[in-house]
Amino acid sequence: MAGDALTTEIDKVQTERDQAFDMAQKWLRQVEVFDVRLEALKRAAELRPLRQEVRVRADGPVTRGRQPGAISKTWRAVLTTIGKTSPEGATDEEIALVARNNGVPNVRERDVRDRMKSYETHGYVEPTPTGWRVTQQALSRFGADSSEAGGDSDEDEMEDVAA
Hints:
- A two-stranded antiparallel ribbon has the order 1-2. It has a two-stranded antiparallel ribbon with strand order 3-4.
- The protein folds into two domains: 1-48; 67-162, Orthogonal Bundle (Arc Repressor Mutant, subunit A).
- Mean pLDDT is 82; it is low at 146-163.
- The chain is built from seven helices and four strands, in the order αββαααββααα.
- By secondary structure, it is mainly α.
């Protein structure tokens, strides 16, 4: 009888061990699957394109593209013209007219007002009772107080983008 009980116990432990071994092999196969997936993801991460530089402005929104304060040659010409022809300032309507004559075909007074408010934050214009006055800082920066050719050079454009 003792042998039968011992044989039964041996069989029982052997069955539990076999089940544990099967379970361990199942988990090892699962780990291997995770290893393959992990390697594939790491490889994909190496091949992804470089991320574009993203600037976060202090006032919140994420921005891409031009640097703050950089403006197109067209609008630099508009500000230069206004600064030279209307040193005491110009209305939104007058600025819109100058903009249309300088290659901004569908600009509205409301668009001009919004743009001038933006330029005000960079120190390019300042409000007057009737409109906007181009600052000396803007005229100097855009080359309006020097020769005409200097105001539209590629070097000035690069300075604007880098500033």
